[in-house]
Inverse folding.
């Protein structure tokens, strides 16, 4: 983290580690999940097909079986923790207190590296960027990929008002606090709306 940022706020290194009790609880729920075997009759005649009245039962069972029998969260944790994660407190105007914000801050060794803010959408997370961040670093981009407030490991505001404008202001503040007066930004879905707002408000 740039020294200029450290004088303003104090990001701390963060390691993702979900407690065993949480994983045991999830495993129990998956093992005892019950899926109704009946689909809506003639749902296939609807243009949406078997998804016309909700999630297709067959697909739901496939997901359930994968999560219960094959998915390895610890393996995912190890992959995520290969990237540098941080937590920092940012002031929340609508809550009038500081919120814990999680972000990945992966620096490039390029002397003229371009700071790049990557913003995920809904129902997404920073996991979307797991493979692309090393490629961006190699291409000369220093990447900051925050978990939007209320997503992933970022604390959520507890009062109304956390809209696109709020998110844009908080993430712009994060970049400023990290010492990046100018930076590029990319987002998808809600992240695209947030980065568009940043570009308009802070050109």
């Amino acid at each position: 983290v740039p020294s200029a940022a450290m004088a303003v706020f104090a990001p701390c290194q963060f390691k993702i580690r979900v407690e065993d009790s949480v994983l045991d609880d999830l495993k129990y729920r998956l093992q005892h999940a019950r899926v109704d075997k009946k689909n809506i009759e003639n749902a296939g005649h609807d243009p949406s097909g078997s998804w016309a009245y909700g999630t297709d039962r067959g697909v739901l069972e496939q997901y359930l079986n994968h999560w219960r029998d094959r998915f390895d969260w610890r393996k995912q944790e190890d992959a995520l923790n290969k990237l540098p994660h941080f937590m920092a407190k940012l002031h929340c105007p609508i809550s009038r207190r500081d919120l814990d914000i999680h972000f990945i801050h992966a620096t490039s060794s390029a002397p003229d590296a371009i700071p790049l803010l990557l913003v995920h959408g809904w129902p997404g997370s920073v996991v979307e960027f797991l493979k692309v961040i090393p490629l961006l670093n190699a291409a000369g981009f220093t990447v900051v990929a925050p978990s939007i407030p209320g997503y992933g490991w970022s604390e959520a505001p507890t009062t109304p008002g956390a809209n696109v404008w709020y998110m844009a202001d908080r993430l712009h503040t994060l970049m400023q606090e990290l010492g990046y007066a100018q930076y590029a930004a990319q987002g998808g879905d809600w992240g695209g709306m947030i980065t568009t707002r940043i570009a308009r408000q802070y050109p």
In short: The first helix runs from residue 3 to 6.
